[in-house]
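User: Can you predict the 3D structure of Cytochrome P450? Sequence below.
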Amino acid sequence: MSHNDEVLPYPLGYDTALEPPKEWARLRGQCPMATIELPSGDHATMLTRHEDIKTLLTDSRFARPTAADNAARIAPEGSGGGVATGDSTMAIPDEGEPHRRWRRMVGKYFTAKRMAALRPSMTVTTEHLIDDMVRKGAPADLKADVGFPLPVYVICDMLGVPADDRHRFSRWSDMLLSVTRYSREETRASMGEFTQYMSAHIAAKRADQTDDLIGMLVRESEGEGQGMSDAELLTTAMGLLVAGHETTANAIGKMVAMLLADRTRWERLLADPSLVRTAVEESLRFDVNHGFGLRRYLPEETEIGGQALPAGTTVVCAIASANRDENVFDHADQMDLGRTPNPHLAFSAGPHSCLGQALARTEMQVALETLLRRLPTLELAVPAEELRRVEGLLVGGLQEVPVRW
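Assistant: Sure. Here are the predicted structure tokens for Cytochrome P450:
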């Protein structure tokens, strides 16, 4: 527990969508291990400093909570809990050698080299999406018109599933990521549909060899027990579809919103497009709206930052607070588009760092460079203070990003 008896309701409050909660700076300084109360009423410990969070995330002893852990629950009883409540039927091994083996198998498809090869087709897709947005006219919602469809088309293409089904994917993925938004019945029915859909898809790939990601994993799994079990294949395909679309769609929208909120940032990029790569990293760092925060369960008493945390503690890592830590980043509260080095933790760190980070970076870079080239006059169609956050999901985002040009 923290040394004082303060219990903060979590998620913390904030003034506007692009500003951090006021408490972060105070907590980093005075109470870097704060006690928080989750929507379920359970208590957990929130870490806010870069060093502490990095220490925890890179320690392979700590994994995401599972149903067996008796960890703090996020959502109140009776609300739908896909991934949120830990009761999903996820068959991906979460730690040790099985986890490393799984990451090696899937990671082969997400290398920076493979992603670079996808760049030209990603650029063409982005161009088409911008054409459609321009045709419909301003004001437009950049998140709905570009941010959301781009990652969906790309991940559908990589997995070899039809992009025409994307509206079903978004509903399923919302359900999987829901904290408080859907009832348990809705979530269960939806997961049943998603599971059935993916199982049929994998069976079709077994019958007819394809060279997309699922097709290749299926082929590898037919060897001498080296590959994935059916359950692992199913979970992997479902997990990648969700992970590959929701977070990046949100990241593209938030990035553009931050760059246009102070339009001198956008103008700096127009003047020097070579800053696109560092600007993407800085928008990942500067983003205050990461969603729920990464949870870890401590099976044994652990010392972090000189403080003992008892066994059985559920920890929530406030990644976005770590990314604003003055001890690591000079002028941490300023968006510096040329910032380097930039050791942000937006993709986590250690054995569970984001497998798709090369993909996400490539999509964000392509979206940004194409928008700069095609719509140099882009601007927010509402004052930045009026942007609204997505609530009630594990991932953070803006409800819409209204723009004109």
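The CA atoms of residues 256 and 368 lie 8 Å apart. The chain is about 45% helix and 10% strand.
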